[in-house]
Amino acid sequence: MARIDLTDVGHAYSRGDGSEDWALKPLSLSFDSGKTYALVGPSGCGKTTMLNIISGLIRPSQGRVSFDGVDVTARPTRHRNIAQVFQFPVIYRSMSVRDNLAFPLECRGWEQPRIDTRVGSVAEALGLSHRLDRAARHLSADEKQLISLGRGLVRDDVAAVLMDEPLTVIDPQLKFSLRRKIRELSEQFQPTVIYVTHDQYEAMSFAQEVLVMRHGRIMQQGTPEQLFESPRSTYVGYFVGSPAMNYLDAAWDGSAATVAGVPVTPAWAPPVRAGARFQLGIRPEYVRLVQRSGPNTLPATLHSVRDHGPTRVCHVDIGGQSATVKVPREHPIPSEPLLYLEMPRAKVLPYVEGELAVVD
Ligand SMILES: Nc1ncnc2c1ncn2[C@@H]1O[C@H](COP(=O)(O)OP(=O)(O)OP(=O)(O)O)[C@@H](O)[C@H]1O
């Protein structure tokens, strides 16, 4: 498995009228060997363009791509030694499951006993051991996609496994187990995986590192925990988490913050420029519904409660601003519409003009 470095890589597709649009703004970043990454963001943010630059399907307008320090920018896909898994299964329909998995290894001249061992362990991890002798065309869509994944992971000599929305065609009920299988396989075989998805839940539950993209830029790269605990922008706070992070317009007088005239102390004192938009962000999971006023509590009105099984989501109004509170099922919800929201100071993050305020 390889370390992949993008150095000052950017890409602009030419439009018919001769103008150009940067689908990927120039950036430099590295993917460490043996780690799992997810590229996540809304449609059109440049995820597939970045993946295709890494695979060699697109030659970037500028910059350098290297695998383990070797410049591969000019190499076509077939000379990059990567495995790819696409939205739709790519399998040999007339071959058995075993032959589908073995084929990439035979092409590389592996000895038969080594092929048998490797195919056996990948099939076992995929839960396909009992299907090895079936013709692939008789399998369900999910099982076919499992084979595509298996073919991606069966070779231990690939530089990276690149996956572009591999669960799109999968039945929603099976997505969960398939996602778990991909994660188990990644832990077992430790390939460098770059996984494209528009689904933040998929990204957060699968990858060790998540890159959140917008308009051809990386807005933040970090572990799922880092993205959840300290989103660097309101964009990331809204995009990651369900429901999204709460952002409340606030005032800052140089030493203290207020929301709708009520004091709230954030985790740290932010530098706020005069006239800049100042907001306090807190995850719905960290807000507590309480009966009476106290330090860092805001009076609120309860509007509605949505049941999400193990949790309930309360929609509240704070002086004309909406917010959500996630309440574990076993916690009571006050019957009175007027209540207080307690915001633990360490979880109240200050944002200036949409960016997490950092202290120099
Ligand atoms: N072949 C192309 N020619 C011109 N523009 C393109 C081409 N492919 C992509 N684009 C544009 O580049 C931008 C980024 O597209 P890209 O497919 O990389 O985004 P994405 O995040 O993968 O989106 P999606 O999830 O919808 O595939 C979009 O504005 C898209 O319209």
Mean pLDDT: 92
SS-derived structural category = alpha+beta
Q: Which superfamily, in CATH terms, is the homologous superfamily of the largest domain?
A: P-loop containing nucleotide triphosphate hydrolases
The ordered string of helix (H) and strand (E) elements is EEEHEEEHHHEHEHEEHHEEEEEEEEEEEE
CATH topology of the largest domain: Rossmann fold
> Using only CA atoms, what is the Rg?
24 Å
Explain how this protein is built.
With 360 residues, this protein is of the alpha+beta class. The chain has two domains: 4-234, P-loop containing nucleotide triphosphate hydrolases (Rossmann fold, 3-Layer(aba) Sandwich); 242-356, Nucleic acid-binding proteins (OB fold (Dihydrolipoamide Acetyltransferase, E2P)), CATH 2.40.50. The protein is 24% helix and 33% strand. The protein is built from eight helices and 22 strands. The strands form five sheets. A six-stranded mixed sheet has the order 6-7-8-3-9-10, sandwiched between helices. It has a five-stranded antiparallel sheet with strand order 16-20-17-18-19, with no helix packed on it. A four-stranded antiparallel sheet has the order 2-1-4-5. A hairpin with a 3-residue loop joins β17 and β18 (311-318). It is globular. It starts with a strand and ends with a strand. The protein binds adenosine-5'-triphosphate (ATP). Adenosine-5'-triphosphate (ATP) is lined by residues 13, 23, 41, 43-49, 198.
